[in-house]
Amino acid sequence: MTLPPLVLPPALNYIAVFLTLDCNLNCSYCINDPDQTGDRRALFHEPRTALPPEDWVRGLARIPFSADLPITLQGGEPMLYWGSKGLGEILAGLPHYFDLLTNLALKPEKFARILNGQQAKLQRDAPYPSIRVSYHPEEMERTWHGRGFEELVDRCAALADFGFRVSPIKAESDVGIYMVAHPDNVVTPRMVAAYQGRVPFETKEFLGVANNQLFGTYLYPFSTDLIARNIYPRTLECECRTSELLLDPLGFVWRCHFYLYEAWKTKRPQEEFAALQRLDYLYQDNIDKLFPDTRLKPVGHILDPNFTMDALREFRPCSYYGRCIGCDTKVKNNRFQSLYDQNIPHTSVEIRNIQMPQELLSHPDFLPHQRAYIKK
Ligand code: SF4
Ligand code: SF4
């Protein structure tokens, strides 16, 4: 059955498909585990707990093609999706452009084989590489015996043998390397010598708490560090809505990264998915029967013919404020470069009416302009 197309609101800034939360690395700071306990493998190792390729094609075909709004494939490690088979089928079945966030832990030959001749779908004309390879020093130096970065650069360069443009100039390369600027991750002269003249390399802001210090710039007070830095003993109530379409490995649509990751830790999406299949994916019609007794409920399902983007634009109550994931509440550009060009900060979610205890209003980290987000 063909599903009705979605009407994308102009404010939609990002479309993410978490093809799998399984990963071949186990980074201690992995944000898939909001508590960053270094235990993500035990939490998320469930190969093949995912929508089959033909269902992804049916679901994603609802998204209108846009040359400047790609569908970003991520995880976990998205190349492990469906036993490392099936991604080519998804790419071949859709007209869209895709971005890919990968650790390139699979060899380039295998990487290309998985794409099954669909390289062009990852070759959008964009100011930055569509294939964004993450360098994780701790895990990669261990795996590749002290030459992790060199190996990663070699693997990126080898993608040129499989039809990709590889250039040291960001706007001319399909592939680039990114490293989270965690305080433990340092750019060394050895790394500079390895990437210069070959592959673009950049650091990405680390978002979160390390050594009781908050990293990143956030619009809303204490959104990510309220609990992590013991600023207050419990999370707060607020209202929140998103400007992103976030799809988990089974096609559930989530209101933010925290809900998605935290729900997957409980394994409820996997349990409820079987029930949803028996209900012909009619999530909205059966919302009261599914995910009972949990606040971690998806806002929809991509295979539900009644799902519309209106579900994302509604402000909904949330009682997890203070455990938000940094990528949802950090100040950034939208896809039109709003911060750089117009000094308008963008965040993935909009939050209002935070029920902030009086004592936190005088906390030294609370800024006067943040009163705008507090419930009167
Ligand atoms: S490679 Fe990425 S998804 Fe995998 S453990 Fe590291 S941070 Fe997490
Ligand atoms: S307030 Fe934070 S945890 Fe709650 S929905 Fe918004 S981003 Fe997610």
Task: Give the helix/strand layout.
Elements: E1 14-18, H1 40-44, H2 53-60, E2 71-74, H3 81-84, H4 87-92, E3 98-102, H5 108-115, E4 131-135, H6 137-143, H7 148-158, E5 175-180, H8 189-195, E6 201-204, E7 208-210, E8 213-215, E9 236-242, E10 244-247, E11 252-254, H9 257-266, H10 268-278, E12 300-301, H11 310-313, E13 316-321, H12 326-329, H13 338-342, E14 349-352, H14 358-361
Parallel strand pairs: 1-2, 1-10, 2-3, 3-4, 4-5, 5-6
Antiparallel strand pairs: 7-8, 9-13, 9-14, 10-11, 11-12
This protein binds iron/sulfur cluster (2 copies).
One iron/sulfur cluster binds near residues 238, 258, 318 and 351.
Series of secondary-structure elements, N-terminal to C-terminal: EHHEHHEHEHHEHEEEEEEHHEHEHHEH
Sheet with the most strands?
Answer: 9 strands, mixed
Q: Which structural class best describes the helix and strand composition? A: alpha/beta
Q: How many individual helices?
A: 14
N-end to C-end Cα span: 48 Å
Query: Which ligands are bound?
Result: iron/sulfur cluster
| Number of discrete domains | 1
Overall radius of gyration: 21 Å
**What spatial form do the alpha-carbon principal axes imply?**
globular
CATH class: Alpha Beta
- Low confidence ranges: none
What's a concise summary of this model?
The chain is of the alpha/beta class and 376 residues long. The protein has 14 helices and 14 strands.
